[in-house]
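User: Here's a structure from my thesis project, written as structure tokens. My advisor, Dr. K., wants to see whether a designed sequence matches the one we expressed. Can you design one independently, without my sequence as a hint?
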């Protein structure tokens, strides 16, 4: 089950609809390295899943996504 592998996303599937929820509400669902990897893994899975006909992307909590996680991008710059 892909859900067991995802650290920052929730993947729910019902009928032909797959819902991917960004699940870092404490950081307004800002994109970090773990979330980028989880999104790539989830999208690869869904692309090859013939039972999924629709993918809904949403954010946990009150916000969809604040963009990139500044601490993550700073760590890339700092090396």
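Assistant: Designed independently from the structure alone:
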């Amino acid at each position: 089950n892909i859900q067991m592998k995802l650290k920052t996303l929730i993947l729910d599937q019902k009928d032909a609809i797959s819902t991917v929820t960004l699940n870092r509400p404490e950081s307004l669902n800002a994109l970090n390295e773990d979330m980028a990897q989880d999104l790539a893994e989830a999208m690869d899975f869904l692309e090859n899943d013939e039972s999924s006909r629709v993918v809904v992307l949403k954010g946990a909590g009150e916000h969809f996504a604040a963009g990139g996680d500044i601490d993550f991008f700073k760590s890339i710059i700092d090396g």
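When you compare it with your expressed construct, this may help: Residues 33-47 form the longest helix (15 residues).
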